[in-house]
Design a protein that fits this description.
Bound molecules: zinc ion
CATH class of the largest domain: Alpha Beta
Number of domains: 2
Number of helices: 7
Distance between the termini: 59 Å
Shape: globular
Strand order of the largest sheet: 4-1-5-8-6-7
CATH superfamily of the largest domain: Zn-dependent exopeptidases
Number of strands: 14
Radius of gyration: 20 Å
CATH topology of the largest domain: Aminopeptidase
Order of helices and strands: EEEHEHEEHEHEHHEEEEHEE
Helix content: 25-40%
Largest sheet: 6 strands, mixed
CATH architecture of the largest domain: 3-Layer(aba) Sandwich
Structural class: alpha/beta
Length: 242
């Protein structure tokens, strides 16, 4: 059984970065809980342990002590960025990182960027810094900075469910790849189903795949007051509004 330690940054009295109506502590908690849910639902032989699963304050030392004591195989600390710039995604390993951390950072960075680049997220690169979370963790460790709270364009992205889902997916894919996890047979993808509501009407059978929402064309067209005509010979759907 592989043990994954997910560390949602900040919490409680420490909001982390704030701006544009967002608090870092809330976003990183939502991402962390979703990563646990999705990874455990879709992959076998893995357990996800969390520094925090609610809005509580923890010292940095408590986080790494717990992860080290639990014997976690990897640690991923999840944050959002601030401090100007053009926004984007970046990741950190320790300045004297071992090869495990270098590889973990590379795999997670690559998978997260691949999941979110279609939203126009800037890749700020794989970086090294003397940060407590990556320095004091005994296992391969990486810290991700998921967009800038104080950059309006990034904050707008963080308010979108499809962007948040893709950030989660990138972390899940990276962790699974690094640890060589196997998908459970017949596992239902957590993202499989999505609620779509058009003008107050629920559209059935919506699906979310790689950050794109798919819904039955007739249902959504008619909910928007359009006429939907299907020509089976030419396999053409025509949608018209008067
Ligand atoms: Zn932070």
């Amino acid at each position: 059984m592989k043990k994954v330690w997910i560390d949602a940054g900040h919490g409680g009295k420490d909001s982390g970065a704030t701006g544009n109506g967002l608090q870092e502590k809330e976003i990183v908690l939502a991402v962390s809980l979703a990563v646990k849910k999705r990874l455990e639902a879709e992959y076998g032989d893995v357990q996800v342990l969390l520094s925090r699963s609610s809005d509580v304050f923890l010292e940095l030392a408590e986080r790494t002590h717990k992860a080290n004591a639990a014997g976690a195989d990897i640690l991923v600390s999840i944050h959002c960025n601030a401090g100007g710039g053009a926004g984007g995604f970046e990741s950190y390993r320790y300045t004297s990182a071992n090869s495990g951390s270098v590889k973990l950072q590379n795999v997670i960075h690559t998978e997260v960027m691949s999941a979110i680049k279609s939203f126009g997220v800037i890749d700020r690169g794989e970086k090294a810094a003397n940060l407590h979370m990556v320095r004091e963790s005994k296992m391969p460790a990486v810290l991700t900075e998921n967009l800038f709270i104080d950059v309006a364009a990034d904050a707008a992205k963080l308010k979108r469910q499809d962007v948040m889902d893709s950030i989660v997916l990138g972390h899940v894919n990276g962790i699974a790849k690094y640890l060589g996890l196997q998908k459970k047979e017949g596992a239902v993808t957590v993202e499989d189903k999505v609620n779509v509501i058009v003008n107050g009407k629920q559209i059935a059978d919506g699906k979310l795949e790689n950050g794109v929402t798919y819904v039955p064309l007739r249902a959504i067209g008619e909910a928007l007051g359009a006429k939907v005509v299907w020509d089976n010979k030419t396999k053409t759907a025509t949608v018209t509004t008067e």
